[in-house]
């Protein structure tokens, strides 16, 4: 985790922020708050203001806003809600923004229940990618890549969903071929044949591919200008955009096209099948001990939160120790959130990454257990006794052996 951040992520965000400042038309969308949180607290006040300015003028968009892009099959719903809350809380408090669109292009299949959860969190639409190959081809042929996802018949807040038409990890290969490859043989025509509307989102980049953001943006600047110079011949207009901007454009277009009705879906996209005989179902059960540890940590987190809530009533009496307790609860919140990642709780990470995850979890649990023990022995019994309140869970005494 630290290796990813120090070796790749921090430099990527520095490059992106610098590039966006050079041209007010450029845009970039960020998803996982776990890394943005670290970027924020590693930045100077001037750099923080740059980030806020870019968000405010729409150049830097926060999509999804969860602490991580969580898995949708193996993660427990309560832990999903917690990690989303943690990320949105940070986005609102520090970045002064509330995400309205979600981005989930890497989890191995998608859940109708998760779509419903997102709708309850204020998300108005989301972008997905990994679904069964047969379903994918049928949706392309039927122009059903844009659809409404309903959890059930009585769902009051159905989720608008866009299915990406091309794997995100292939785009860097096209970048390597040169920018002119975008203009060859009516490249975008094949995509427009698979949608009902005139607006198509097309994302640029992949894992760790924005390390030279100015180079990529300059290439995109040239593409946009080339399309603008030849708009009559290409019949395509290319602009920088973001998730929420695309949703707004699609909404406005749908109002002007009453005949274009979005299809509905209620079932999950499980299991995910990438090739004819390759079903992504092993991660439902792989590394069971790790899955158990993560699930147990999530339940322990709820207990420690309840203790914290009760302790807060005595904050004037135990202020110093309560502050340490809050810090340890927050540390546990962050690691439990990280472990909901689609390459963590699924067990699809490399062994050394798994070991790193479990080490961070152990350190967080050791810290909160120590804080709880100290508060129980030193403080809790006294104020509760004075107030004639009995909390058996807090009445702990050190045993003599």
Care to give the gist of this entry?
With 401 residues, the protein is an alpha/beta fold. The chain is 51% helix and 8% strand.
Question: How would you characterize the overall build of this protein?
Answer:
- The structure is a single chain.
- 51% of the residues lie in helices and 8% in strands.
- It has 14 helices and 9 strands.
- The chain has helices spanning 2-22, 33-41, 45-56, 77-93, 112-120, 133-141, 171-177, 189-192, 213-229, 231-234, 243-256, 288-311, 319-338, 351-386, and strands at residues 28-30, 60-62, 101-104, 125-128, 146-149, 159-163, 264-265, 272-275, 278-280.
- It has a 5-stranded mixed β-sheet with strand order 3-4-6-5-7. It has a two-stranded parallel ribbon with strand order 1-2.
- A hairpin with a 2-residue loop joins β8 (272-275) and β9 (278-280).
- α4 packs across α13 (319-338) and α13 packs antiparallel against α14 (351-386).
């Amino acid at each position: 985790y630290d290796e990813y951040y120090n070796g790749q992520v921090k430099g990527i965000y520095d490059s992106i922020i610098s590039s966006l400042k050079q041209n007010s038309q450029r845009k970039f969308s960020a998803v996982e708050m776990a890394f943005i949180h670290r970027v924020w607290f590693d930045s100077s006040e001037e750099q923080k203001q740059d980030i806020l300015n870019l968000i405010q003028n729409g150049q830097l968009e926060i999509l999804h806003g969860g602490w991580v892009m969580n898995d949708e099959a193996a993660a427990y719903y309560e832990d999903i809600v917690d990690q989303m809350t943690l990320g949105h809380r940070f986005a609102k408090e520090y970045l002064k923004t509330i995400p309205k669109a979600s981005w989930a292009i890497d989890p191995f299949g998608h859940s109708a229940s998760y779509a419903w959860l997102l709708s309850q969190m204020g998300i108005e639409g989301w972008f997905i990618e990994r679904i069964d190959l047969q379903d994918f081809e049928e949706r392309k042929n039927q122009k059903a890549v844009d659809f409404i996802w309903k959890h059930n018949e009585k769902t009051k807040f159905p989720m608008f969903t866009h299915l990406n038409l091309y794997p995100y990890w292939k785009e860097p290969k096209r970048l390597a071929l040169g920018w002119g490859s975008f203009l060859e043989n009516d490249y975008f025509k094949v995509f427009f044949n698979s949608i009902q509307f005139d607006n198509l989102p097309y994302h640029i980049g992949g894992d760790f591919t924005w390390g030279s953001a100015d180079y990529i943006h300059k290439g995109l600047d040239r593409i946009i200008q080339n399309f603008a110079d030849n708009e009559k011949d290409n019949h395509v207009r290319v602009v920088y955009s973001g998730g929420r901007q695309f949703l707004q454009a699609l909404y406005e277009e749908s109002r002007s096209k009453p005949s274009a009705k979005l299809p509905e879906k209620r079932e999950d996209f499980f299991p995910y099948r990438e090739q004819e005989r390759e079903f992504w179902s092993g991660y439902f059960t792989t590394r069971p001990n790790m899955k158990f540890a993560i699930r147990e940590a999530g339940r322990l987190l709820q207990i420690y939160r309840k203790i914290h809530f009760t302790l807060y009533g005595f904050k004037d009496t135990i202020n110093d120790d309560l502050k340490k307790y809050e810090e340890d609860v927050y540390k546990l919140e962050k690691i439990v959130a990280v472990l909901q990642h689609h390459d963590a709780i699924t067990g699809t990470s490399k062994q050394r990454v798994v070991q790193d995850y479990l080490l961070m979890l152990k350190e967080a649990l050791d810290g909160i257990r120590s804080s709880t023990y100290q508060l129980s022995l030193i403080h809790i019994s006294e104020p509760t006794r004075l107030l004639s309140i009995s909390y058996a869970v807090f009445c702990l005494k050190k045993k003599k052996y």
